Amino acid sequence: MLLRFQVTNHASIRDEQELSLIAGDDRGARAQRPVPGAASLKAVPVAAIYGSNASGKSNLVDAMSWMRRAVLDSFRRWDPSGGVPRRPFRLRPDPQTHPSTYELDFVVDGIRYEFGFTVDDACVLEEWLACFPEGKRRALYTRTGSDPASLSFGRSLTGRRKTISDLLRPNSLYLSVAAAQNHELLGRLHRWFRNGMRTATDGNFAARLDYTVGLLRRRDTGSSTLVDLLRFADLGVEHLEFSRHDEKYLAEYKRVTTALSEALGRPVKNDGPEYRVTVQHRTEEGVFDLELNEESSGTRTWIGMLGPVLGALAAGSVLAVDELDARLHPYLADALVGMFQNADLNRHGAQLVFTTHEASLLGPHARTELSRDQVWFTEKPLETLATRLFPITDFYVRDSPDSRDNLERRYLSGRYGALPHLDDELLRRVAADTAEGGAGEAGEAVGTEVGETAGVA
C-alpha cells in the first residue's frame, strides 16, 4: 500500500510536491483500505492527476519510477565512479548545486514505513528509514553523508549492519546494499519496490507485453481472466498466440541498440519484446491471425496494459500509469479505473495512480465515480515553469462538501485551473498569415523538399 509520495527537484518539479493517497472521506463502496496503526485513516485505491500538456504530470510518474530504479539499481548497476544519474530541474542558473529528494510512506506486511533519500550529481547525501509498528515512529537507520561512518542505527534494526556498511559506496543506497546481502527485513522492503510498485509508460511497453504473455503462458485462472478482458474490450480479439523470437531477430535488435548507444554516447537498454505476439480474430469466415504491429494502437495499448493491471490486482500492488487514456476509448479507460475502485474486483488492496486528459472520468456519465479526495492537478506558472501539484479538495473550503456536483463541467470551465491557456490573438495572426499566402508558400517549400527527399514526384 502506498500512502504518500513526495519529491523535490526532479525534471520540471523544482519545489517540494506531495501526492497523498490518504482518504478524505470514508466511502465504503470503493476498495479503500485501513492504514495500519491509524484506525481512523484509510487509503484510496485510485488517484487521478489532470493537467495541461507539459504541466509535469508525466514527470510525477517519472519521479516515482526513478526512485524505484534507484532502490533497485544503485548498488548493482550504477557505475561506482559515475555519480548519480538524476534529472534535476534545469530552468535556473545553477541546477547542479541543488540536491534532489525522494520520500514515500508505504505499508509492507501490515507495518507502515517511511523511506527517503537526498542525492546530488555525485553521491547520496542523506537516507533514512523508519517504521510505525504501533503507530509511533521508530528510526531504523539514518544516513547523513556519503560514507559508512555517517550511518546510525536504531535498536529495532538487527542483522549484519556493519558488514553491509563496509560495502556501501558514495552513490549507492544502504537499502540496495542490504538487499543484495540478503538482510531479512530490508530485503522485504526492497522486494516491495521491485514487485509492489510498478509503472506503465510508452517506454516500457515491451516489458509490459512480455508480462502479459507470461500470464497467458501459465494457462491458469489468470490466463482465462486475461482472455475474458480481451473479449470484454470489444476489439474483435478472440485470443493471443505467442512464440519466442528467433536468434536472427534478437541479434538484429541487439545490433540496432548497440549502434544507438554509440551514436547517443550513453547506454540504450536492449529490452525489446522477448515474444512474438499474434492476435486472433474470429469472423463468420473463421479464425484469422494478425501480427501485433498490424493492430490498431488502441488494441496494442489494451493488450500491453492487461498484464500489469491483472498483476497489480492479484498481488495488491501499486501501478502508476502515464497517460492512461492515450489511444484508449473513454469507456475502456473508465472500465480500467473501475477495476481498482470496485471492492469485489480489487480484493487485495491494489492501487492505481494515473495521469490523464480524459475529463469524462469526472462526469456524471462515467461508470466509475471518482471522489474529490482522488483527483489532483498539475500546473506550471509562467514565472517559474516549475510544476505545482495540488488536490481538488483545495477548492472546497468555501463550498459545501456534501453536494454532489459535476466535477467534469467545473474542471473544463476553468474552476480548478490546470488547463492550457490558449491565446486567440495568436490564432488570428496565423489566420492573417495564411490569408496572405505566407504559410502556404512555406508549406509548399517544405512539401517539395520532403517529396524530393523521398523520391516522390
From TrEMBL:
InterPro entries registered for this protein in UniProt: ATPase_AAA_core, P-loop_NTPase
Residues covered by region (Disordered): 437-457
Domain ATPase AAA-type core residues, every copy: 46-362
GO terms assigned for molecular function: ATP binding; ATP hydrolysis activity
Pfam families reported for this sequence: AAA_21 (PF13304)
Domain of life: Bacteria
Name of this chain's protein: ATPase AAA-type core domain-containing protein
Source species of the chain: Mangrovactinospora gilvigrisea
